[in-house]
Amino acid sequence: MPGVDEEQLVRAVARGDRAAFEELYRRTSPWLAVRLRRRCTDDQVVAEVMQETYLAVWRGAGSFAGAAAGGSAVGWLWTIAARRLVDAFRRRARHDRPLPAPAPAPAAEDEVLAGALGDQVGGALRDLAPELRQVLQAMVLDGLTVRETAVLLGVPEGTVKTRARRARIAMREALS
Q1: Topology of the domain covering 1-103
Q2: Domain 1-103 matches domain 104-176 at the CATH topology level
Q3: What rounded mean pLDDT belongs to the chain?
Q4: Are the beta carbons of 127 and 174 closer than 8 angstroms?
Q5: Domain coordinates in residue numbering, the chain
Q6: CATH number of 104-176
C-alpha cells in the first residue's frame, strides 16, 4: 500500500480492512518489538505484549483520534504497547516472577536522540546516571505516569519521583 500513511491504515482498520491491518503490522511490528525489548529482555513477555497490542489495535482502531487531536498513529500504537507492557509487569509482580533486568548497553534510539538534540543536550543526557536516564525516557519520551514508570523499572513511586527531580536538576546544571 504505497502512498498510504499509518494514520490512513488505522482508519481503514477501524472499518475492518484486514489488508490494512496486515500492512500496519508489517510496517510497525519491527520497531515496536525493538522498543519493547529495550524495556524487557524476556522474549515471551515481549511476544505477549505484541499480541495484546495488535489485538487492541484491531478492536479499538475506531477510538484513534488522529492528527486532528494532536496524535500520530505510531504514537497511539506505542502508548497501547507501553501500557500493555506495564500490565505484564504487574501480572508478573503478582506472581512473584521477577523480569530480567534491561540490557545495560545503550540503545540506538538513545544515541540518535542524543545526537538529534544537539551536542550540549546530548552530552548532558549521556552524562546522566543510567537510572536517571531511564526515568526520563519512560516519563518524558514514552509518556508514562509515575506509577507506570515505577512498575516498569521495578522501583517504588517515591524513587521514581526522586530520580526525575535529580535528572531535571542535573540537566539544568549541565545546560546552564
Answers
A1: Rna Polymerase Sigma Factor; Chain: A (1.10.1740)
A2: no
A3: 81
A4: yes
A5: 1-103, 104-176
A6: 1.10.10.10
Rg (C-alpha) for the chain, rounded Å, is 17
Instruction: Name residue, grid cell 511490528.
Output: 29
Q: What is the 3-state secondary structure (H, E, C) of the chain?
A: CCCCCHHHHHHHHHCCCHHHHHHHHHHHHHHHHHHHHHHCCCHHHHHHHHHHHHHHHHHHHHHCCCHHHCCCHHHHHHHHHHHHHHHHHHHHHHCCCCCCCCCCCCCHHHHHHHHHCCHHHHHHHHHCCHHHHHHHHHHHHCCCCHHHHHHHHCCCHHHHHHHHHHHHHHHHHHHC
pLDDT tens digits for range 47-57: 999 999 999 99
154 vs 12: CA distance, rounded Å: 38
The pLDDT tens digits of the residues spanning 82-106 come to 999 988 888 877 775 555 555 555 5
In tens, the pLDDT along 113-153 reads 545 455 666 677 778 888 888 888 778 777 778 887 887 77
**Digit-coded pLDDT (tens) for 8-39:** 999 999 999 999 999 999 999 998 998 898 88
